Amino acid sequence: MKEIKIEATLTIFDSVKELPDDIRLLIDKAIKARTKAYAPYSQFQVGAAILLDNGKIVTGSNQENASFPSGLCAERTAIYYAGAKYPKAHIIRMAISATSLNKPSLTPIPPCGACRQAIAEYEIKQKEPIEIYYMGATGNVALSKSLENLLPFFFDKSVL
Ligand code: THU
């Protein structure tokens, strides 16, 4: 019998003001994307912005549906669009901003498990880490320098 331990490291910034201009720009795009969410059922808006190695920035927001499971999270809307539009590009980083419309979220809100699995696929495919900055409406910003910090023990193609 043996125990396996995996360490996860996050960096927490007090506010976007601590971050360099290029990261703030990406976070701004995520915040703008958030306002375009279609979230009439949850009143919870999420925006994601992805910087590619070809310099393009792709954004997405959550899109809900009266048939609830048919909706899609912001992170997957953005990453699938990036994969569809720029299949050869590598993802450098993703910024995410999420908030409830009923009470502004002031702590960093990480992507859900399904989105982590989707991001893992692209990190494995490109063999380079994807940086993930995530926050609420405002306040602290968390940075995971690789998806692996957010989803240890991820499922990958090696077992297929
Ligand atoms: N949502 C996201 O867009 N990303 C996540 O990582 C978690 C949840 C969306 C899905 C749904 O539209 C709303 O937030 C509430 O769950």
What is the number of helices?
Answer: 3
Order of neighbouring strands in the sheet with most strands? 1-6-5-4-2-3
Assembly form of the protein: single chain
Largest sheet: 6 strands, mixed
- Characterize the overall form: globular
Number of DSSP E strands: 6
CATH evolutionary superfamily: Cytidine Deaminase, domain 2
Structural domain tally: 1
User: Can you give the helix content as a percent range?
Assistant: 25-40%
Domain CMP/dCMP-type deaminase: 21-158
Binding site for Zn(2+): 73, 112, 115
Cofactor: Zn(2+)
GO molecular function, one term: cytidine deaminase activity
How does this model look, in words?
The chain contains three helices and six strands. It has 160 residues and is an alpha+beta fold. The protein has one domain (10-159): Cytidine Deaminase, domain 2. Strands 1-6-5-4-2-3 form a six-stranded mixed β-sheet. The longest helix has 14 residues, at 21-34. The two termini are 26 Å apart. Bound molecules: tetrahydrodeoxyuridine (THU). The site of tetrahydrodeoxyuridine has 13 residues, from strand 2 and helix 2. Belongs to the cytidine and deoxycytidylate deaminase family.
